[in-house]
């Protein structure tokens, strides 16, 4: 999996590998934020596919609730083509925030002390591992009958009763 190590903060002090993460900008959809954050932290372009799982927490900063979405993204087509042709590409960590970015073994990632000691993160990692072990079937693979992947896909749709569009996230199995 693609993971990063931060320059500062609790994750940096623990030398923890984590997935690229960040906050949504005002008015930004989850799918757009996932693509933007991955690009900012690793230099890679990607395409949002689906939400694997999410968690909700309360009592955060300013007494606010917080939602964290684990998103499955796939490499942009130009990278996939380069890999098929035997080529490679560089990861470009964001200098201000990210110490390093790399492809790491998922089992190694999931068994870091902080993750393996937390029931919440064990469940989150289990969901991610299930997605990886079943083989990552992207939503647009065209083989809907044999697609065993689960998650929430984004659909940007007209509201209809007033001008504008909203993004709805629905099960990829429906």
Gyration radius, rounded: 17 Å
The named CATH superfamily: Nucleoside Triphosphate Pyrophosphohydrolase
Report the principal-axis shape. globular
Number of domains: 1
Major sheet strand order: 1-4
Number of helical segments with 4 or more residues: 6
Family: Belongs to the Nudix hydrolase family.
Domain Nudix hydrolase: 1-127
GO molecular function: hydrolase activity
InterPro entries: Nudix_hydrolase, NUDIX_hydrolase-like_dom_sf, Nudix_hydrolase6-like, NUDIX_hydrolase_CS, NUDIX_hydrolase_dom
Can you tell me about this structure?
With 174 residues, this protein is an alpha+beta fold. The chain has a single domain, classed as Nucleoside Triphosphate Pyrophosphohydrolase. Helices cover 28% and strands 27% of the residues. The strands form three sheets. Strands 1-4 form a two-stranded antiparallel ribbon. Strands 2-3 form a two-stranded antiparallel sheet. It has a two-stranded antiparallel sheet with strand order 5-6. The longest helix has 15 residues, at 119-133. It is globular. The mean pLDDT is 86.
Layout of helices and strands:
Layout: E1 2-6, H1 10-13, H2 30-42, E2 46-57, E3 66-75, H3 77-84, E4 98-103, H4 106-110, H5 113-116, H6 119-133, E5 152-158, E6 165-171
Antiparallel strand pairs: 1-4, 2-3, 5-6
Keywords: Hydrolase
Pfam families: NUDIX
Domain Nudix hydrolase: 1-127
Compact description:
This is Nudix hydrolase domain-containing protein. This protein is an alpha+beta fold.
